[in-house]
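Deliverable D4.2, example record:
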Amino acid sequence: MNSPRTLRSPRNAKSADKQRPFVNLFKVDFPDKPAKKIRLPKDMKELLKIATEVLELVRPAKQVFDADNNPITDISSIEPKSNLYISCAEPVHEDDDEPVYKSRLPRNYNAPGLIKLPPVKQPKAKPKREDAVQHQAIAASPYTVKENLRDSLLSLYASLTPEHKAQLNCAPALQKLMLDTKQYVVEDSLLSQFIGPTSVISGEELGKQTTQWMMDRLKGLKPEECRFVITGPSQSGKSTLLSIAASLFYQKLQLSNETSNYLIIPINWLLHQIFLDDIQKIYQLMVTTTLTALRGEHLELIPIMGALQQWLLSLVTIPAFPPLPPSVLHFDPFPKDVVIGIGRRIHDSWNNKEKLYNFLFETMNFPVALSHAFGFKNPVFVFDHFDSCGYVIEPTDRFAESGAPVNISELLCKVIDSCPFFVAAQDESEFFTIFTINEYKQLSTERMITAKGEHEIMISNPQITLSMDMCRGCPAYCAMYKRLCEMVKEANERAAVKSQFSRLRSVVDITRNEMVKQELLRVCLLLAAADTENLFDEEKMNRLSSMPELQIKLR
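Output generated by the structure prediction step:
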């Protein structure tokens, strides 16, 4: 039996150390170097001391990490044959608020010229305004404050009964404001779709003649009989005639108190041709255009129009059929049952992979269905550049199981066949291949203007003579010809060096001559597109464009 003295002898202590496990030491900055193998000591302090000697560290070891870069603070948590990584950095204490890098300056050091200023008193936060939500809504609105005030006033006036309106002293003024606003909404919707004249002819004689010519075509016709197709050469004034026709048609509705029976739906298909393959964007286009027209005609619906538009757009984004918003549902009068039925058909066809045709038909027929729901007889479609919508949508992606592709132009022709319409073409040859409606009245921009021009434009080299007769009575061509005559007259009268034998040319004269040349080339190219007498052959056009300076005179 061993006595206590025997157990505490140096011989037994050495044998106990030999039984401790081995561990491998690495430098934390150089983990790829060979490890130093030592026996694990009894405490962390001794381990750090041995690591400093074995690894030949310049500074004393401070921390021990395992293979996962976790710090080790207890010696008993180290397993045999484990890899230990030694670091000389001081351990970071989370509770230590002092900066890692301390200043070497004395604590009471004051820099020369340093003045300690008193702390600035912070201003008290202003309390939130009670009408902050209303101001935020006004800021987020696409309409100006003046337009919002006008719309709120007219919305309140439109919601009154005829008895209440009769008791108002300002009823005539409000009625006039309402009619002017409705006319403005129609004009603005046309201009927002770029359906309007490229050249300003409204205040000139050409504009008066074009307007009178269109008034003669609308005279004596009922609204349902207004089914017009506008054709003509390229850039000859088809959009100009279309905008004039739509404006005159709406003024005719106002004079006959028929504005509550017809809804103007203007779309310029050339603007939206780029996303005709995106079904959702086509749906958004039809919804926003129809609701904008409905908002301008039914001013009492302005408070709920935003919620109604969000609900209609959510039909193609939410899998489940969304309920009608409470503000719309409880609005009186509102055809909620009919509108819910329209939304149900759109939502069901959107979520059926086999109903591509049904969804596109409901999309194109949306203006008709919504106008009937609100008591209109029919919408009036105003389409510009109709041949730009001749696009075939293949049944892919969401409607992969649908059978045949769908032609957008065929659907539109099917929808507008039972409604009044004003349709303008871009290219006649392509237009009549996709426009399948049989009953319509064709209007041509040619031979509309019968007035003779006062001047002729003469070019000496090459010899070309231009007159108003070459414009074939197209309002846009006549407007460009008159503008060209004015530019030639101004260039000749305001020339800085007027002698034709002088070689000197001022910068202003050169610039004016170049502007006249570019406008002349533009007019000649448009007139040459339908030139039957070969007045603008290829050789003359090449010589015109290659001449550095043209001698142009008015006769």
